[in-house]
TrEMBL record:
This protein's UniProt keywords: DNA-binding, Phosphoprotein, Transcription, Transcription regulation
Biological processes annotated in GO: phosphorelay signal transduction system; regulation of DNA-templated transcription
InterPro entries on file: CheY-like_superfamily, NreC/VraR/RcsB-like_REC, Sig_transdc_resp-reg_C-effctor, Sig_transdc_resp-reg_receiver, Tscrpt_reg_LuxR_C, WalR-like
All copies of domain HTH luxR-type, residue ranges: 149-214
Name of protein: Two component transcriptional regulator, LuxR family
4-aspartylphosphate PTM positions: 54
PROSITE patterns, per database record: HTH_LUXR_1 (PS00622), HTH_LUXR_2 (PS50043), RESPONSE_REGULATORY (PS50110)
Sequence ranges assigned to domain Response regulatory in this UniProt record: 3-121
SMART domains in the record: HTH_LUXR, REC
A Gene Ontology molecular function term of the record: DNA binding
Length: 218
């Protein structure tokens, strides 16, 4: 079972999400919070796999809470899926900067929400279809990595770099394997080593890193 923490200031939204998620048969809602401050405490106490996080909430916003949860986790932090009614670039930028693993709009279909949680639980970052690579590229442009950190890009092998570039262009593991004439398992192995080297928790953060370090041209 995938353990999920729901964070939203509207009780009716949390109740609706709980019904949708628990009807899937593979997701358990372990706790609910109505603001960011409570979310930080519950994340520490319940150790969820994924947190569905609203952005605007009284008593502590979701982006600040995400930043604290990611920074204060004693081990591997839970994946944070930012779920919001707002699709403005700035909210996406804020989510990425705070360490979120995914971003989806509240008007998504129930199946899309469930699939997003599955992906994050499996270590695959996600951006809503309405949010294109342009957003990630612009995010990297606005928040460039200091030149002193640039050499980190050269820790990757040629094959690892090749795979990260294809990942940033939107290819799946299967598509990357086809493109490079290698096995899907080999792609996963190289990508896993690349993510470990750069300290990325998931695919989305790997793509952000690639843009910030100039591994992928903007």
């Amino acid at each position: 079972m995938i353990r999920v923490l729901l964070v939203d200031d509207q009780a009716v939204v949390r109740a609706g999400f709980r019904v949708i998620l628990e009807q899937s048969g593979e997701i358990e809602v372990v706790a609910e919070a109505s603001n960011g401050t409570a979310a930080v405490d519950l994340a520490r106490r319940t150790n969820p796999d994924v947190i569905c996080m609203d952005v605007r909430m009284p008593g502590g916003d979701g982006l600040a809470a995400t930043r604290r949860i990611v920074a204060e986790a004693p081990g591997e932090p839970p994946a944070v899926l930012v779920v919001t009614t707002f699709d403005l670039d700035e909210y996406v930028f804020g989510a990425l900067e705070s360490g979120a693993s995914g971003f989806i709009l509240k008007d998504c279909e129930p199946e899309e929400l469930i699939e997003a949680i599955r992906r994050l639980a499996n270590g695959q970052g996600l951006v809503d279809q309405a949010v294109t690579r342009r957003v990630i590229s612009e995010f990297a442009r606005r928040r460039p990595v200091p030149e002193s950190d640039a050499p980190a890009a050269y820790q990757l092998t040629a094959r690892e770099t090749e795979i990260v570039v294809l990942l940033a262009r939107g290819l799946s593991n299967v598509e990357i394997a086809t493109e490079l004439f290698i096995e899907t398992s080999t792609v996963k192995s190289h990508l896993g080593r690349a993510m470990a080297k750069i300290g990325a928790r998931d695919r989305l953060q790997t793509v952000v890193w690639a843009y910030q370090h100039g591994v992928v041209s903007r």
